[in-house]
């Protein structure tokens, strides 16, 4: 963001003009969403505080009763200092007694310049805003949230809304930042679009625009093998997982889905889905010939496979084929403490889809304190594969540092078996030749959209049935 400011200013836009537009946008959001009431604007010492003085001025001009309280005066010569001198009212010191009449609070304490956890009276007033449950509007970010990671440094107010500028930051999409920001309003403050091209961001909010063109549409000359033949390596005991993977893969548009499992379980799979091809689980040494002979373009290994050497060897054999491969669930846990073995085996496109527990088993040193985005990027680089770290704020990262954060998944998806559906969708996209990064991004978006389409009462089995409609909409 600093770079965006610098380039915008280099392009002839004054820093103060950006601040004016930012503060005005904050006032606009407040006026549009709250009836007139007492407002307390908390201003920090930097430009975030500067935005606060501008917002205060606009609200006062609009007839609102505004109190401004500052942590300290902005440094002279800064844009924030100019904004402070243009505020026509008095400036009070920050004090908890200002909350007594339960004002609407505008939090302009710290934004992108947050350098350490808020302490002293800044920390005290943040805690008190939360304790009283006051309506609060964050300027840029709720103060205390790190815009790059969504992590909280010490404390941050729980905002009803946050107004940010130019472009969302990862911290607006990643937990806990996303939950603390409330509804996020993105304001255009006049930074030219060309600045975005210069910055070349490496992290995006997941959106069909990133991958829609790479979805494979059925063609007149297609036959089942040209639309992707996915192999699902499943288990003999937990058959539900493999069935969900296969069902989702078929609804996602695979030309053919074959499922390999221990022979005694095959009747269960065959009876569940007549259109599914069932095969006896091959020996790892036979897997390459099987995939080659049956023109299988990708394989999913792990859901319901069982943890242990057998699954590990099948996953390694799948990777050795050089064909696209997705490892999830038991195939990941089977490499707990041995991620370097997995990394050394990567030959072709490879995607892993861990949840928090599986991620920690593979990468115990990449703990939560690093922030999800950094954890996933590091894991992807280390593995030489695309990593989709699941959750309400799923992150997909490629070894080259590209990343997307997904924010369309409803909490209804927190239900057993939904991860298997995700693996099936992604497996099909891989089988159709979509690059692993785009396949993961598309799959997690489709999964979230399917979850939203079902809503309350969702069970994993519902999700595949939503895919035809969603795919149709994406094509129109
Ligand atoms: N394009 C943009 O993004 C624009 C950004 N603007 C605003 O500028 C902000 C960034 O401004 P700054 O870089 O001045 O940074 P901030 O205003 O976020 O904070 C920096 C100041 O706070 C102090 N500080 C940091 N952490 C502290 C803590 N825990 N306790 C006490 N003091 C602390 C620093 O020493 C420094 O004085 C953005 O968040 C945004 O609100 C706008 O003014 C206009 C344009
Ligand atoms: N609170 C939540 N909000 C949105 N999506 C969620 C939430 N919790 C879990 N999910 C999603 O649900 C799926 C669960 O997958 P997983 O943990 O592998 O479960 P299972 O193995 O039972 O299928 C993942 O795609 C995950 O991102
Ligand atoms: K803030």
**Which structural category fits the helices and strands?**
alpha/beta
Number of helices: 19
Fold-level CATH name of the largest domain: UDP-N-acetylmuramoyl-L-alanine:D-glutamate ligase
The distinct ligands, each listed once, are: ligand NAX, adenosine-5'-diphosphate, potassium ion
Gap between N and C termini? 35 Å
Q: Please tell me the overall pLDDT.
A: 96
Number of domains: 2
CATH-assigned homologous superfamily of the largest domain: Ribokinase
Query: Uncertain regions: pLDDT < 50 for 5+ in a row?
Result: none
Read across the widest sheet, the strand sequence of neighbours is 8-17-16-15-14-13-12-9-10-11
CATH class of the largest domain: Alpha Beta
Q: How does the major sheet shape up?
A: 10 strands, mixed
Work out the strand percent. Answer: 5-15%
Rg result: 26 Å
Q: Give the tally of β-strands.
A: 17
Q: Could you estimate the helical fraction of the residues in percent? A: 40-55%
CATH-level-2 architecture of the largest domain: 3-Layer(aba) Sandwich
Q: Name the overall outline.
A: elongated
